[in-house]
Design a protein that fits this description.
The complex is a heterodimer of chains A (545) and B (337). Chain A is mainly α and 545 residues long. Chain B is built from 15 helices and eleven strands. In chain B, the strands form two sheets. In chain B, strands 1, 2, 3, 4, 5, 10 and 11 form a seven-stranded mixed β-sheet that branches. In chain B, strands 7-8-6-9 form a four-stranded mixed β-sheet. Chain B is globular, with a radius of gyration of 21 Å. The chains are: A mainly alpha (545), B alpha/beta (337). Chains A and B meet through α3, α7, α13, α14 and α17 of A and α1, α2, β2, α3 and α8 of B.
Chain lengths: 545, 337
């Protein structure tokens, strides 16, 4: 698949990059535009009601949750990435990819499994009560269904974004720079803090931003834990109060918040450029550790794997083997796999084009177009779906009206098809693909391009001969992350999918939402299994190089 | 390679093809697992193929609206009356015009204008912890706001449609002012912040986190059927109480359906609805999901029948839809999360 994408990409002419960027920005802008258009259709009565009652809570909860998750993913993602990049200890290579596994879990599945075990009525607390343990020991577990609890669940499944991107950055870093630090008498920690972290900032920031956006768009987890955020508010205003305008206004506010975050992060490093000379890579100079220190590092890496993957998987497996009835998942698995595979390839292809457009023709308007591309990720899936549904529906009516002249019965051409669904995925996940690809590209220093040109390569020649081999890792990571994200995507899939078409995520959610956790266990686990395929593929490809 | 295999499939499904004859297209808020077996039976007996799209009622409704005249949907199935009312008000339904349905389903479980019909009934009674509560202490929903229950009640979030409908029915019975005061009292009596679903409330009840819980009957029925020992323990500790028996009766809601205005397979759609109220379909829901039949000739599951008979609120369920947004705002003001 990878060679195909790269092959297609090579056949493009440079100005096609600009064209693709414009098309991509238009795609993302379409649903956003639809939502914004609602702002001007009049004021909603619900708005004053929201101001009086819940709006403050939505803002505060969303902000706190984002902040906690941001801290969580950095605290888990960066140190683990550092450990597996810099130190060599037994089990390092297997741990380095096991650390990706929690990404395959939708956060709400984690929430369901954990509460079933840790709830007041669950086995752990019941046992603790029977043992007569004191209240304060039980309190933190009881508090799972809360904002901090939701932050823990989300951090456990979202840290791999930060881990992946910062590991790639660490591995690419020049050892020379670090050695300069050591010769200047700095400790390992000081070098990490003062050289490595600042140099890896774009990657860490991009990963964290993805995690924050995913957090803001999360519905399943916060809903289940009773945390009222912007997204639950949008859904409640839309479904509970039947108020499209109010829901659109809330969405716009959320979008404004995200646009501010994205811009603030981009502007703050606007003039700084980060390049590494890649003379000697960190990987080749990894430090050997043995004994207690190695065990400690193994343990540290195992913690997130245990809580984010092994424990929930064990619970699901127990449910499946003890209570569940056999159900065939073949069809659902194929649907999920094929859809995620094809769409993630398309997304990454477009992301590459956008990243190159930005590199070759940097300009202000391109910068803003690229910001637009990044916004879709923060929109809750429901909002994207509605934003796609309305214009597609209108277009269908238009086509039907035109065809009715020829006596064709009105029917749908675009909405209710996989095209509409793929379009929504593109809007929602282009930011993920772009984040990964562009942080990879940003680490290739321009002098490399210049040397290439001096040696007589054309502009495209530089891309083919010099960049592509260097970009392989980033491109594969981008495909992996998009693939897993699409695999897990729920609200847009539910609203836009065609007749008789289900995915694993839809099935798992429907069963879990219907409080049939045991039946939901098998499709949930299957999501993880399918999500593992690209992880293994990624790992094998990286290993081959 | 993967791409090559998938491309023809993708190309075929890229544009949605016009519906063929002898089909019926169902948009259903009723989950896949609980409707597919019935659809198969329907196809078997009638020869009509059923295409299914499941989703949340609100989302399905927006999809029908956005699709307009071109919508492929013939039937909209929801699991509450409120959303059917909303669909009627949005102008996407048409009168059902079926003598069979009018003859089978009681009037209060159908729309006055015949725009939708109930398919199954679910009740929302009070459940209590047997060793902490004496039945004589219980009477009405209204009494749950009494300070005697401070810190003792478990109920799920106000985002849930079942709670919205329950409050909507109370607004109808007692007026908005009194209901808001009641909601404040109820919130003050919560044992914990509302989280989880109905089953979670029942589990919390059995574990002693609260003394009373409100939940739909079929969740209790599922626990009764469960193979898990922990679920059996839950059932052993709790019992059901039917509130408001000397007044308007216990709050009930329906799962129901309507015919879509721009349906292209009207006759098939109607035939499908008639099948859904037939004894065969009614008994299926009673057995599989412990819901009460709308048809008087079908019988409730043994499990649910064991709960005893009760007087149900005879309010026309269309009212639940009318009062829905008032109910949501009221619960917001009462800080019912």
């Amino acid at each position: 698949m990878l060679s195909k994408i790269i092959g297609c990409f090579r056949s493009l002419r440079p100005n096609a990059f600009l064209l693709i960027t414009v098309v991509a920005a238009l795609c993302v802008a379409l649903p956003i535009g639809v939502i914004f258009a609602y702002l001007f259709t009049g004021a909603s009565d619900v708005w004053t009601h929201l101001l009086d009652t819940l709006l403050g809570r939505y803002v505060a909860n969303s902000a706190w949750l984002s902040l906690l998750v941001a801290c969580g993913v950095v605290v888990i993602g960066v140190p683990t990435a550092w450990i597996v990049s810099v130190y060599r200890f037994p089990g390092r290579s297997i741990l380095s990819w096991l650390l990706l596994l929690p990404m395959a879990y939708p956060a709400y599945i984690l929430a369901y499994t954990y509460t079933s075990v840790l709830d007041f009525s669950g086995p752990v607390l019941t046992w603790m009560r029977e043992m007569g343990m004191s209240e304060w020991l039980m309190a933190p577990l009881l508090g799972l269904r809360s904002l901090p609890g939701a932050a823990v669940m989300l951090s456990l499944v979202l840290y791999p974004y930060v881990y992946l991107m910062s590991r790639a950055a660490f591995l690419d870093q020049s050892v020379n720079l670090m050695e300069v630090g050591y010769t200047l008498g700095q400790s390992r920690w000081a070098v990490f803090r003062r050289v490595v972290i600042p140099m890896s900032r774009p990657a860490i920031a991009a990963g964290t931003m993805l995690a924050i956006m995913e957090t803001l768009a999360d519905f399943g987890t916060v809903q289940f834990f009773g945390v009222q955020t912007f997204t639950t508010g949008i859904v409640r205003t839309y479904y509970g109060l039947g108020d499209t305008i109010g829901a659109a206004q809330l969405s716009s506010l959320l979008l404004g918040f995200v646009a501010f975050l994205v811009l603030a992060e981009r502007v703050s490093r606007h003039r700084i450029r980060y390049y590494s000379d890649r003379l000697r890579k960190l990987d080749q100079t990894a430090v050997d550790v043995r004994g207690l220190k190695a065990v400690l590092m193994q343990l540290l890496c195992c913690l997130p794997i245990f809580f984010g993957f092994l424990l929930p998987t064990a619970i699901l497996l127990k449910w499946i083997f003890m209570y569940a009835e056999w159900q065939s998942l073949w069809r659902l698995t194929w649907n999920s796999f094929a859809l995620a595979g094809v769409v993630s390839a398309i997304i990454v292809f477009m992301a590459l084009a956008i990243a190159y457009a930005n590199r070759l023709y940097p300009s202000k308007w391109l910068f803003y177009l690229t910001v637009v591309v990044g916004l879709g990720y923060a929109l809750p899936g429901v909002v994207v779906a509605i934003g796609v549904l309305i214009p597609f529906g209108n277009l269908d009516s238009l086509i039907s009206d035109m065809l009715s002249i020829f006596g064709v019965q009105p029917s749908l051409w675009l909405s209710g098809s996989l095209f509409a669904l793929g379009f929504a995925y593109l809007v929602r996940f282009l930011a993920v693909g772009y984040g990964n690809v562009s942080s990879g590209l940003s680490r290739i220093r321009p002098s490399l391009d210049q040397s290439g040109r001096l040696l007589g390569l054309s502009q495209m020649g530089v891309l083919h001969r010099l960049h592509m081999p260097l970009m392989r890792g980033s491109v594969m990571t981008a495909i992996l992350v998009c693939f897993v994200d699409i695999l897990k995507e729920l609200p847009a899939t539910m609203i836009l999918r065609p007749f008789n078409f289900n995915t694993l995520a839809v099935k798992a959610y429907e069963l879990a939402g219907d409080e049939r956790l045991i039946d939901a266990a098998a499709p949930s686990l299957m999501i993880v299994v399918v999500g593992l395929l690209p992880v293994i593929w990624l790992n094998r490809s990286v290993g081959r190089e | 390679m993967i791409l090559r295999k998938f491309l023809p499939v993708l190309a075929a499904s890229l544009i949605s093809l016009p519906a063929l004859a002898s089909e019926v297209n169902v948009y259903s808020a009723r989950k896949d697992a609980l409707i597919v077996p019935l659809l198969e039976k329907f196809t078997e007996t009638s020869g009509i193929k059923v295409n299914l799209l499941t989703g949340k009622a609100g989302a399905l409704l927006s999809r029908i609206e956005a699709e307009g005249k071109a919508t492929p949907a013939d039937v909209l199935v929801t699991v509450d009356a409120g959303n059917l009312h909303r669909a009627k008000m949005a102008g996407v339904l048409q009168p059902i015009n079926s003598k069979k349905i009018a003859g089978t389903v009681p009037k209060n479980l159908r729309d006055p204008g015949d725009f939708w019909t109930g398919l199954t009934v679910r009740a929302r009674p009070i459940f209590y912890l047997k060793d902490r509560v004496d039945v004589s202490e219980l009477s009405t929903y209204e009494f749950l706001a009494d300070p005697t229950w401070a810190g003792k009640i478990c109920i799920r979030s106000s985002s849930n449609i079942y709670n919205q409908s329950m409050v909507a029915s109370m607004i109808e019975a007692n007026g908005e002012m009194i209901t808001e005061k009641w909601a404040r009292g109820l919130v003050a009596n919560f044992a914990r912040k509302p989280t989880g679903g109905d089953t979670d409330q029942l589990r919390a009840l059995a574990a002693g986190e609260c003394a009373l819980a409100i939940a739909n009957t079929y969740y209790y029925g599922r626990l009764l059927d469960s193979k898990k020992p922990a679920d059996k323990d839950v059932i052993a500790k709790i019992s059901v109480f039917w509130p408001n028996q000397s007044g308007r009766g216990t709050h009930v809601n329906v799962s129901g359906a309507g015919l879509v205005k721009y349906s292209k397979n009207l006759a098939e759609g109607r035939q499908f609805l008639e099948f859904m109220v037939s004894d065969e379909a009614q008994n299926y829901y009673a057995e599989i999901n412990h819901e009460f039949p709308v048809s008087t000739s079908a019988s409730a599951s043994q499990t649910i029948a064991s709960l005893g008979s009760f007087k149900a609120d005879s309010l026309n369920l269309g009212v639940l839809g009318v009062n829905n947004s008032a109910a949501v705002m009221l619960m917001d003001r009462a800080d019912w999360q």
